[in-house]
Write the structure tokens for this entry.
Amino acid sequence: MRQLQVVGTTPEQFEEYYAALVSRDERYEGKVFVGVTTTGIFCRMTCPARKPNRENCTFFQSVSDCLEAGFRPCKRCSPLKPAAETDPTITRLLQQLESDPTRRWSEEDVAQLGYDPSTVRRIFKRQYGRTFLELARMTRIRGGFDALGGRSSVIEAQLESGFDSGSGFRSAFAKLLGVAPDALRRDGLLRADWVDTPLGNMVVVSDKSSVHLLEFADRRALPTELRKLHSAVKGDIGIGRFDPADQVATELDAYFRGESASFETPLTFWGSDFTKAVWRELRKIAPGETRSYSDIARRIRRPSAVRAVARANGANQIAIAIPCHRVIGADGSLTGYGGGLWRKQKLIELERSLADNPAGKSQRMDITSRH
């Protein structure tokens, strides 16, 4: 038998990874990849293809490591694509959700489409951090959000978003946005609105001069972040848009079209001096490039503060424009991302295609610091 090939793993870890490969263990999805020396291809751990013999396996912790080692991506499991794009269950259910956003989904509805509700819960939870039913409920809330922004009353917004119960609407709205709909002012100092992107809805909060928050709507930290803003401005927050929100929406559109990674919208940072130093350093990472937490710590002259850098990176509340997604593990693996690892992978892939575009390398932003 040939010697076992292991990259960055101990023999014990090899055995763990091979067992996970054979059982198609979803817990390793996106964290470990397997290169097959006899075919020259690399696969996801959950690839449905016939499993290779142990002696022909090499395990990697990132897609880039696989490519650098000379392996080609498997055409069957498409490891270069986010898992969310390759799962027909996710694709069909999201299409159903898009076609009827006010529908009140139940597990019985999911079962009638021929899916096992527990399986659907698991795959959506893995990819989005939320179940399908939670996403559906959030979509209905978005309808109410739009109605409130259009000057509808709370009751009108409740009905337009498909909620029969006023208390249910208020509870769901507060759970998503951190505050009840009644607490949002019509003429707030800060205003919140939705931005549609190919990777999902985002919430943007701005005042007349800068953006304070830009987050994917399904990020679990979003309600907490909005509550903090609501408290910081003493409740002076409403629904609607100022010019900076329009500007960043236009820049996001150009970004996702692959035309530019330049974000010039003025931003307001809420955080400690250390946290703001980390965020400023993140803005110096060019599109198509990545850094590790230890790299960032060294660059801000705090080499021993790697964990604090990781916390500051995770506390970023202006996604994409402050590119926390460009920070990866020291071994090249994708690490945690509040918007979901599938989004992080997609953003990095998109930016690699922008790397040769001079316009995509410019990230000049005016910043107002706040505590």
Notes: The chain has three domains: 11-80, 81-183, 184-371. Residues 11-80 form a domain with the DNA Methylphosphotriester Repair Domain fold (CATH 3.40.10.10).
